[in-house]
Amino acid sequence: MPTPSATLSLVNRLKFKHLALLVALDDVRNVHQAADQINVAQPSASRMLGDIEEAFGFQLFERNARGMTPTALGAVVLAYARRALSELTRFAEDLDVKRKGGHGQLTVGAIMGAAPDVLALAVAALKTERPLLNLRILGETSDQIVGLLYRREVDLALARLTTSLQHNDFNFEPLARETLTLVVRGRHPLARRESVTLAELVEWPWIAQPVTSPARVLFEEELAHAGLNTPSNLTECGSIFATLQLVGTYDSIAMLPESVVRDHVRGKMLVRLPIEIGKSLPGYGILTRKQEALPEAAHHFVSLLRRFSQPITDTPLAPPSLKIDE
Fold this sequence. Notes:
Blueprint: H1 5-13, H2 16-28, H3 31-37, H4 42-56, E1 61-64, E2 67-70, H5 72-99, E3 105-110, H6 115-129, E4 134-138, H7 142-150, E5 156-159, E6 170-176, E7 180-185, H8 198-201, E8 206-208, H9 214-225, E9 234-236, H10 240-247, E10 253-257, H11 258-266, E11 270-272, E12 284-289, H12 296-308
Parallel strand pairs: 3-4, 3-5, 8-9, 8-10
Antiparallel strand pairs: 1-2, 5-12, 6-12, 7-10, 7-11
Helix pairs in contact: 1-4, 2-3, 2-5, 3-4, 6-12
């Protein structure tokens, strides 16, 4: 279809400098001040405005003693000028970021148990290499994160499968074991006990993950295996951070990843109870959507996760060392 002559005239004659002048005129309603804003002389600005109005074929501003007022069609043109300049500015900024090697965006879902070790090390290495990469980390528990992956709100996930059929939708690459531990605050009456039983513990207040989380499922299975009921005094909490705050506030028990409570135990804010639980919890790993290629930044991040992970074993993992200059 042939391009209308009026359109060709605009394409051939309209420049970004013209758009900048229009926006400046709309801001100050004065040719002299607008010329100063775009660094041209007033006569040049006046000629530019004349050329612009000739290209459009109608008057953009009404001139009067108090300045300049956009005409009805002029207001439409000014709105376009603002949009075009804004898009050009965003394009230029994004291009500058790409030129500096920090382009792109990566959104990762991650369980908190992986955060202090594998995730933190991989993120540190990634941001050292690509400081301007826009990185977002979402989620806390595997059930939350798998939902984010389903809804395409994350590019990949560091979690575990939560149902037996999810292997049909996601690829899973095991990375490491998430060791669970039972903790109480330092002033808890159980803190100085050398031995405890699960039957004793269910009588105390508990803070537990939601029933849909793998850790909670395992907890309920261990209770069932021991012939015990779910603790009657139980607070469900899907936030690891909130759980840490709660267990440190009153005499309750929480089952949390060892990597998450490690520093709290070292600082004597929390105490590990002398009982093993959650040994059969499956290891976590990298979850990606099937038949879908990863973006380049996500593919590189996966390589970093592999680099800082350790093979799954039945013994607690020591945190790997960070060597980002290799």
